[in-house]
Amino acid sequence: MKRFFIVLLGALLAASLVIGCADFGRGRTGVFTGSAVGHGGTLVVEVEVERGNILRIDVVQHSETPFFYEIPFERVISAAINDGNLNVDNVAGATMTTVAVRAALLQALNAARVNTAAMMQPALAHTPQNIQLSADVVVVGAGGAGLAASVQAAQLGASVIVLEKMSMLGGNTIIIGGIVNVSGTEQQRVRGIADSTDLHFQHTYEGGGRVGNPELIRVLVDNALGMMRWTEELGVVWQDHVDTGLGALWPRSHQTVLPLGTGFLDMFHRFIALPDSGIEVILDTRATDFIVQGGRVTGVRGVNSLGDTITVYAARGVVNAAGGFGANVEMRMRYDELWEGRLTHVVPTTNHPGALGDGIIMAQAIGAGVTGMGYIQLLPIGDPRTGSVSGVAITGVEGYIQVNEQGYRFVNEAAGRDELIHALFQQTNFTNYIIMCSRNHPTGYELSLGAPLNTLVAYGHVHRANTIAELAVMINMSPAVLQATLNQFNEMVDGNAQCPFGRTIFGQRIEVPPFYASRRVPTVHHTMGGIVIDRYARVLDVNGSIIPGFYAAGEVAGGIHGNNRLGGNAITDILVFGRIAGESAATGR
Ligand SMILES: Cc1cc2nc3c(=O)[nH]c(=O)nc-3n(C[C@H](O)[C@H](O)[C@H](O)COP(=O)(O)OP(=O)(O)OC[C@H]3O[C@@H](n4cnc5c(N)ncnc54)[C@H](O)[C@@H]3O)c2cc1C
Q: How distant, in Å, are the alpha carbons of 184, 202, 251, 336 from that of 198?
């Protein structure tokens, strides 16, 4: 099961701690199956047992999401076979999958009359150890920025150790909608879309309220196309399609063929799995502080899920890529300058639970400067129950309108996210509906943020109807008002009507049935502020001086996006600056 050559240090240590291979009594002999419902549907486990001893466990049927199911399957199966134990922690971010695979296994083992009660005993107590490791480059955080830094450093010959506090790779990067802004691409050329790095710069700088650092923005836009080529060389396949992501301001949002962030995670996994990649990832290990010797950052201390202290020394450099703080309510309340104290726990977040700002806090503790901490971005398309961006039927901005609960448009849908949210806070219940048609989704099997539309409808996340009148009834709106809103919009698409709210980006008429509506609310999405870096991703201290040996990239760093990040600019940022940080650390720049 060592699929990715990832060092599951915590899991390996745990193996020696839990109850040894159990004597299960007489038990039965044969092949038994069990099933449970996971995140994606029914999951079936097959177990081969001889007189109660487990010989083999296979998941023979499942629809769990790639990159989310591998670790839960591996954890549960290896604990059952190697340790005779099923009392493993749920994998954060993949809880439903962990619970389901364990439940299906229990069902099969009970059918085999294996003593499953013994397998649910807690692990024996563990005496914490001090573990010391070293590498050329140490990276904190295995999201997009940290993994881009790791791969780039490894390509330059450095050995790399990555510490990741969660049980799997990816952070926020694996759950992205998937839009990536790049100018001057073949996709744009084929569609006759005029664009340039200068225009991308202008949109980023002005869209960010003219408070972003122009030097860093220049680095971002000038290296975007090179970043795209680099990912292609590493196996990423990009869609031919290009459109305008929510808040992207221009049709330069590209997507990989694999959905969400899995195209990038697939690329990173495959590189790390190369026998000579030189990259070790240590999961379940939270970095706690940076080690400073003689003014230089020389390593990282952390603690794993067993309580062991892990110290990793870096011969060349330390990269801080621990992400933002969108899930840290205390921090966003303390720093927020834009939303007038609204960002309490009542406002949900799109972020993964590990986005707590650890990297910023740890960097400040050794004197790093921070910038733009008060700039926190909200998104108008949060799931009303969870804040997640999933469960929505949406396209590029060209293909939808937003209406309030009364059925009226209330904003330029192609505006920046700050403008969208300010307008949404003026609407009843802070609620809006994304309305689109089937023009780009003719069969219903097409994906919207990684999920087929048919599934979204089946689970009740999205409403679908053959006429606008029926759709309006489903969402308690006046059919006449919603129809009039759409008629007026289609007139604007044809160029026959004035454009309320100043929308300038249009696609085709929204008129092909069936029609879709998704109810959405504001949700905390991105933290623009963070550690001060220079163009080489070197961390600067509170006086603006370089902290030797210390680099930062990704959402942990500030200054690039000003007070409003463009949709699709974050992935460009984390991959561009991740690579730069990896190069700087590997070369000691
Ligand atoms: C739902 C969603 C959709 C998005 N969609 C898009 C999109 O389509 N396009 C776009 O451009 N942007 C998008 N964004 C924004 C973008 O995803 C993030 O800005 C970006 O992924 C951040 O990358 P990162 O590597 O800096 O951080 P992350 O990907 O969050 O990685 C940071 C990692 O550090 C780990 N970590 C944190 N603290 C510690 C510690 N103390 N020790 C060890 N590890 C630690 C975390 O667990 C995490 O794995 C989206 C964000 C979300 C939440």
A: 11, 6, 15, 30
Q: Which atom of ligand 1 is nearest to the CA of 169?
A: 49
Query: 140 in ligand 1 pocket by Cβ < 6 Å?
Result: yes
Cα-to-centroid distance, 330 and ligand 1 (Å): 19
Q: Looking at this protein, which amino acid is placed at residue 42?
A: T
**Per-residue model confidence as pLDDT tens digits over 399-422:** 999 999 999 999 999 999 999 999
Contact status, residue 267 vs residue 234, Cβ threshold 8 Å: yes
Q: What is the pTM of this model?
A: 0.90
Cα separation, 232 vs 227, whole angstroms: 9
- Counting ligand 1 atoms within 8 A of each CB, the residue from 161, 167, 176 with the most, and so the one to mutate, is 176
552: its two tokens:
């930062």
Element (H, E) at 464: strand 463-465
| Strand-pair category, 309-320 with 546-552 | parallel
Q: Could you tell me the CA-to-CA distances from 335 to 212, 329, 343, 529 in Å, in that order?
A: 17, 10, 10, 9
CB 297 within 8 A of CB 117: no
CA 279 – CA 138 distance, rounded (Å)? 10
**How far from each other are the two terminal CA atoms of the chain, in whole angstroms?**
38
Query: Do 305 and 12 meet the contact criterion of CB atoms below 8 Å apart?
Result: no
Residue with tokens 């990912």: 231
Record the tokens describing residue 451, joined without a space.
Answer: 């999920």
Query: 143 CB less than 6 Å from ligand 1?
Result: yes
Please check whether residue 431 is in contact with residue 521, taking contact to mean a CB–CB distance below 8 angstroms.
yes
Give the whole-angstrom CA distance, residue 579 versus residue 554: 10
Round to whole Å and give the CA distance between 352 and 140.
16
Q: Specify the residue for token string 């026959």.
A: 496
506-555 confidence digits (pLDDT tens) = 999 999 999 999 999 999 999 999 999 999 999 999 999 999 999 999 99
Is the N-terminal amide bond of 122 cis, ω within 30° of 0? no
> CB-based contacts of 203: which residues, under 8 Å, 6+ apart?
249, 250, 566
Please give the structure tokens belonging to residue 389. 């961006």
- Tell me whether strands 160-163 and 279-282 are parallel, antiparallel or unpaired: parallel
Render pLDDT for 301-310 as a digit per residue (tens, 0 to 9): 999 999 999 9
**Residue 175 near ligand 1, beta carbon < 6 Å:** yes
- 3-state SS class at 371: strand
The total number of residues shown for the chain amounts to 589
| Number of CB atoms found within 10 A of residue 266's CB | 18
Query: Is residue 574 in contact with ligand 1, taking CB distance under 6 Å?
Result: yes
